[in-house]
From TrEMBL:
Domain F-box, chain residue ranges per copy: 276-331
Annotated protein name in UniProt: FBXL4 protein
PROSITE patterns: FBOX
Bilayer-spanning residue ranges: none
SMART domains reported in the protein's UniProt record: LRR_CC
GO BP field: SCF-dependent proteasomal ubiquitin-dependent protein catabolic process
UniProt keyword list: Leucine-rich repeat, Ubl conjugation pathway
Classification via InterPro entries: F-box-like_dom_sf, F-box_dom, FBXL15_LRR, Leu-rich_rpt_Cys-con_subtyp, LRR_dom_sf
Source organism: Pachyramphus minor
Record Pfam families: DUF7885, F-box-like
CDD domains in UniProt: F-box_FBXL4 (cd22117)
A single cellular component GO annotation: SCF ubiquitin ligase complex
């Protein structure tokens, strides 16, 4: 029998590298910190350090504030500090939309994608432009409330103020770390040890993960330190620790370059061994199951080892669910072209955050969907600024089975383009948060997409009459389970009445920062009586919410799990006790800035109802 050792050797080496990488994960942070600390001690040329605050906020994934205001918005990160070194909840800071794990425990929560690498944990981002391109020596992040959300800092080679865009846009990770719990909400200056890069930058990106936080993180300013001339390393940098050299070094060096991932996707010449060893005896399905635990880059690397594994790694069944969001900086038209033949059966596709600054073209995206869109059920395109009307038209034509579409923060799509979505009558989930969808298009979508179960219209500022929209929902969206109307400015008790009468399956309703709703009209009482299945209700910043509303919720919505009544002046401790006694499943109660609920009351309620997270924010 021909020898099987060469095949086994290849696989042994592959799994050895995987195990070695996993075993070294715990120490890589220490090594990176050590390298960064050493780099700070290396000799620099005679070069004046430039210190600059962000000039402009270029892009972000979400924010707590309104599109027509500065309060709690990402735009507050531009310029000098407004709050620091003070601690507390201040409107002049930058705040993302979510915190904690509450959003993962409500009816609108989405299932995660498999194969997401453990090193990618980012949930939100913000990109900042500075006046002068520099070689970074330090980045200071001024956090004023519940710090600890920043998990990654990146630098970009593109100059946002240059008239000549570069041929290639490179992103380099300056610092990265898993989410950590910070004790206390007090302000701090966060200055991680960053690595040196070989190009000047004036575009910095912060990525955050707020899952471990007890409340919204608030950022005040970002300070970039750097020099105009590239630092010259001292001679001791030539002394390299051999233990530091492994495959992860290549990922750090090329991790955000376009070519690296594309080379992994490409087809290479493979040697055919006389026998495949024990793999010839394994069922095809078992090998497929084993390979399903690899990340996409690892799958592409393994495909280059031999023809048998190439066949398995390129099987479309390995790409039924595919998330490219973790590799957003590396995905371009070439990447999609390489993936086409593997994604003919794809059902879930996540392209969120990808394609910006010309990386993905309209034609490249269209070609991919024309080949791979027929079986798509779920399509995530959050912050996809390359999208235009042509892209939406292609989606509706090429994806007849589409049930979930996420266009969150795709604020470059023109208003008229949203009319095409009405052609996808099978839609069950539609996320239009921070888009320019207009009333006419939305009415058409509601009329033809009667299967909708989850709809997000948060911060959609171009809708003129939310009462008309609510009336259409009540008439057409009988299966609606979750509805996000965060910061809609003109819905009244009339629209709420139509909504509550027609959408009685609602389990989640966000009416946060809707100033035209007044408790005196009976709108909240009507909600409580008509929607007994409510599990999440946000009435954030509605000062008119009163004891009667809370008591109606206690009597009718006993399945309630999350309630936000931040800012009300009319709710007493007695009504909250009734609510907590009645709603046994309640896990989140936000009473921040509720004037009748002081810290003493919160401590008492926490003692009597220990399973409920009762949040009381403060300002110093």
């Amino acid at each position: 029998m021909p020898p099987v050792f060469p095949m086994l050797t290849v696989l042994s080496m592959f799994y050895y590298m995987c195990l070695r990488r996993r075993a070294r994960t715990a120490t890589r942070g220490e090594m990176n910190s050590r390298r960064a600390i050493e780099s700070n001690t290396r000799a620099l040329p005679i070069n004046v350090e430039i210190v600059q605050y962000a000039k402009e906020v270029l892009d972000f994934s979400s924010h707590y504030g309104s599109e027509n205001s500065m309060s709690y918005t990402m735009w507050n990160l531009a310029g000098i500090p407004n709050v620091y070194p003070s601690s507390g909840d201040f409107t002049q800071t930058a705040v993302f939309r979510t915190y904690g794990t509450w959003w993962d425990r409500c009816p609108s929560a989405r299932l995660p994608f498999k194969r997401t690498p453990s090193t990618f944990c980012s949930q939100d981002y913000v990109e900042l432009a500075f006046e002068e391109p520099v070689y970074p020596t330090a980045v200071h992040i001024l956090e004023t409330y519940h710090p600890g959300a920043v998990v990654r800092i990146l630098a970009c080679s593109a100059n946002p103020y240059s008239q000549n865009p570069p041929a290639e846009v490179r992103w380099e990770i300056l610092w990265s770390e898993a989410p950590t719990k910070v004790n206390g909400p007090q302000a701090r200056q966060f200055t991680p040890c960053i690595k040196q890069i070989n190009f000047p930058t004036n575009l910095i990106r912060l990525e955050v993960n707020s899952s471990l936080l007890d409340y919204y993180t608030e950022l005040d300013a970002v300070v970039l330190h750097g020099v105009k001339e590239r630092p010259v390393l001292s001679l001791k940098t030539s002394m390299i620790d051999m233990n530091d050299i492994d495959e992860d070094e290549d990922e750090e060096k090329y991790g955000c370059g376009m070519d690296a991932l594309n080379k992994q996707f490409s087809i290479v010449t493979l040697r055919e061994w006389p026998t495949n060893g024990y793999f010839d005896k394994l069922p095809y399905e078992l090998i497929q199951l084993i390979l399903s635990h690899l990340t996409v880059p690892d799958l592409c690397r393994l495909a280059q080892t031999c023809k048998l594994l190439h066949q398995h790694c390129c099987d479309p069944l390995q790409y039924i669910h595919l998330s490219l969001q973790p590799y957003w900086a590396r995905i371009n038209d070439t990447s999609l072209e390489y993936l086409q033949s593997r994604c003919t059966l794809i059902q879930w596709l996540n392209l969120s955050w990808t394609g910006n600054r010309g990386a993905i073209s309209v034609s490249g995206f269209s070609r991919f969907l024309k080949v791979c869109g027929s079986e798509l059920v779920r399509l995530e395109l959050s912050c996809g600024h390359f999208l235009n009307e042509t892209c939406l038209e292609v989606i509706t034509e090429m994806c007849p089975n589409l049930q979930e579409l996420n266009l969150s923060s795709c604020d470059k799509i023109p208003p008229q383009a949203f009319n095409h979505i009405a052609k996808v009558g099978s839609l069950k989930r539609l996320i239009l948060y921070r888009t320019k969808v207009e009333q006419t298009a939305l009415l058409s979508i509601l009329n033809f997409c009667s299967e909708l179960q989850h709809l997000s219209l948060g911060s959609c500022v171009m809708i003129e009459d939310y009462d008309l929209i609510a009336s259409m929902m009540g008439a057409k969206s009988k299966k609606l389970r979750s509805l996000d109307l965060w910061r809609c400015k003109n819905i009244t008790e009339s629209g709420i009445a139509e909504l509550a009468s027609g959408c009685q399956l609602l389990e989640e309703l966000d009416l946060g920062w809707c100033p035209t709703l007044q408790s005196s009209t009976g709108c909240f009482t009507n909600l409580a009586r008509k929607l007994p299945n409510l599990q999440k209700l946000f009435l954030t910043a509605n000062r008119s919410v009163c004891d009667t509303d809370i008591e109606e919720l206690a009597a009718n919505c006993t399945h309630l799990r999350q309630l936000d009544i931040l800012g009300t002046r009319m709710v007493s401790p007695a009504s909250l006790r009734k609510l907590l006694e009645s709603c046994k499943d309640l896990s989140l109660l936000d009473v921040s800035f509720c004037s009748q609920i002081d810290n003493r009351v919160v401590l008492e309620l926490n003692a009597n109802f220990p399973n409920v997270f009762i949040k009381k924010s403060f300002t110093q």
